[in-house]
């Protein structure tokens, strides 16, 4: 959906898109060199950037025109980006679980050296602290934004008897629900589950989640980059898109 938003925008504005995908096993430095060796494009959209990512550092050091499809790994006034308020959105998600009476709330993070994941973890901890609930490190499972890690993390978390789980992404939440079903645990009666992103799989799984349009993020980032390239906007420019809680059957029977 992110790529769809980017592709539709660049096609409408008569630009071409070149896609570089890092393999799951690929070392970030190797990937950065693979990109750098190719002819430099007019501008670059970056996503899933880790702390000290060599490609991010390369583009920043050479003052290349690029836009991040998330907050930068270290807040930097020289970087343009499109993101959502991950901290506030995560607080909203966990507050919903607290409001329905859950007190042992676990979380399954995304890749923690990606800023989206670390900000969502911060929001989770903020909500617990504000509600006067303890932060139990055993209930924090560090994972990735994928189903397999959600499944594995949920199996590990079960021994600590959570009554709710906030997953940093919908696909991880779907993996967690699979583990719960396999263990004979009822959702939401025994453990409530909430995700983040409102992807198509969230609708299909009746998953409570934080909604934001991933496609809109992609199209907004592409528009921003092209506006900067063509001189309509000054670089850097920051855009924070809204989110909202969508309540479905994984937290309450609706």
Highest-level CATH class of the largest domain: Alpha Beta
The coarse overall form would be elongated
Distance separating the two termini:
27 Å
Total number of helices: 9
Give a concise summary:
The protein starts with a helix and ends in an 8-residue tail after the last strand. It has helices spanning 2-12, 28-37, 54-61, 86-99, 115-130, 147-157, 170-182, 200-204, 214-229, and strands at residues 44-46, 66-68, 80-84, 105-108, 140-141, 164-167, 192-197, 208-211, 238-241, 244-246. It is of the alpha/beta class and 254 residues long.
Structural summary, described in words:
There is one protein chain. This protein is of the alpha/beta class and 254 residues long. It folds into two domains: 114 residues, Response regulator (Rossmann fold, 3-Layer(aba) Sandwich), CATH 3.40.50; 126 residues, Rossmann fold (3-Layer(aba) Sandwich). It contains nine helices and ten strands. Strands 5-4-6-7-8-10 form a six-stranded mixed beta sheet, with helices on both faces. Strands 1-2-3-9 form a four-stranded parallel beta sheet, covered by helices on one side. Strand 1, helix 3 and strand 2 form a beta-alpha-beta unit. The radius of gyration is 19 Å and the shape is elongated. It starts with a helix and ends in an 8-residue tail after the last strand.
């Amino acid at each position: 959906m992110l790529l769809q938003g980017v592709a539709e925008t660049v096609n409408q504005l008569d630009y071409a898109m070149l896609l570089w995908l890092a393999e799951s096993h690929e070392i970030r430095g190797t990937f950065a060199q693979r990109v750098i060796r190719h002819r430099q494009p007019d501008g670059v959209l970056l996503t899933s950037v880790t702390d000290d990512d060599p490609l991010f550092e390369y583009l920043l050091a050479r003052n290349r025109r690029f836009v991040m499809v998330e907050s930068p790994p270290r807040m930097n006034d020289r970087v343009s980006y499109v993101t959502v308020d991950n901290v506030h959105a995560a607080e909203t998600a966990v507050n919903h679980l607290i409001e329905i009476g859950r007190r042992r709330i676990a979380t399954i993070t995304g890749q923690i050296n990606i800023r989206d994941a670390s900000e969502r973890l911060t929001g989770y901890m903020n909500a617990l602290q504000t509600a006067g609930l303890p932060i139990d490190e055993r209930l924090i499972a560090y994972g990735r934004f994928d189903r397999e890690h959600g499944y594995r993390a949920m199996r590990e978390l079960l021994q600590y008897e959570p009554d709710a789980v906030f997953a940093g992404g919908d696909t991880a939440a779907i993996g967690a629900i699979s583990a719960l079903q396999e263990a004979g645990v009822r959702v939401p009666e025994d453990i409530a589950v909430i995700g983040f992103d409102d992807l198509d799989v969230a609708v299909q799984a009746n998953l409570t989640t934080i909604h934001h349009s991933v496609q809109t993020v992609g199209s907004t980032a592409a528009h921003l980059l092209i506006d900067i390239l063509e001189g309509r906007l000054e670089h850097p420019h920051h855009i924070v898109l809204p989110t909202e809680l969508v309540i479905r059957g994984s937290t309450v029977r609706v």
